[in-house]
Design a protein that fits this description.
7 helices, 7 strands, alpha+beta, FAS1_dom_sf, FAS1 domain, FAS1 domain-containing protein, FAS1_domain, signal
Length: 166
């Protein structure tokens, strides 16, 4: 019985406490939306991306005011990389290369799906990539946008099906 309380009761108590805190009114102030980093961290489909952002030391930068538009590869997109590539990029000695690849997935400004049109955009990495619309499907440097408009306090996330590289 003690184990049931330990493994079920305590986590449930924590959830109720978090909900009570989240719904509390702090003198009429609006609770801020989560940042794009917080949104990614709360989504299991982005666990590899979040690990890469941490390894590249980009959490603070991507948690700043922005706004940013992030083209976020899923875990499956990272798994599709050739064997050993991700593991190699996550090594401390490859931090600058990893940061460059991740910054290639980010543009300044908040671009919503309704605003997308064929265009070239400059990335935070410093180079450009092309956004195309082919038969109603948005393509970002060859990656297919599979989910759009995940809005955070400091930007928006669009989910893509592959890791794009400069």
């Amino acid at each position: 019985m003690k184990n049931i309380v330990k493994y079920v009761g305590l986590p449930l108590a924590g959830i109720f406490m978090m909900n009570a805190t989240a719904s509390a009114d702090h003198h009429g102030e609006k609770k801020a939306m989560p940042t794009v980093v917080e949104i990614a961290a709360s989504n299991d489909d982005f666990s590899t991306l979040v690990a890469a952002v941490k390894a590249a030391d980009l959490v603070k930068a991507l948690s700043s005011d922005g706004p940013f538009t992030i083209f976020a590869p899923t875990n499956d997109a990272f798994k599709a990389l050739p064997k050993g590539v991700l593991e190699n990029l996550l090594k401390p000695e490859n931090k600058a290369k990893l940061a460059a690849i991740l910054k290639y997935h980010v543009i300044s400004g908040k671009v919503m799906a309704k605003d997308v049109k064929p265009m070239k955009v400059k990335t935070l990495q410093g180079t450009e990539f092309e956004i195309k619309v082919i038969d109603g499907t948005v393509m970002v440097d060859g990656a297919k946008v599979i989910k759009t408009d995940i809005v955070g306090e400091n930007g928006v996330i669009h989910v893509i099906d592959k890791v794009i590289q400069p």
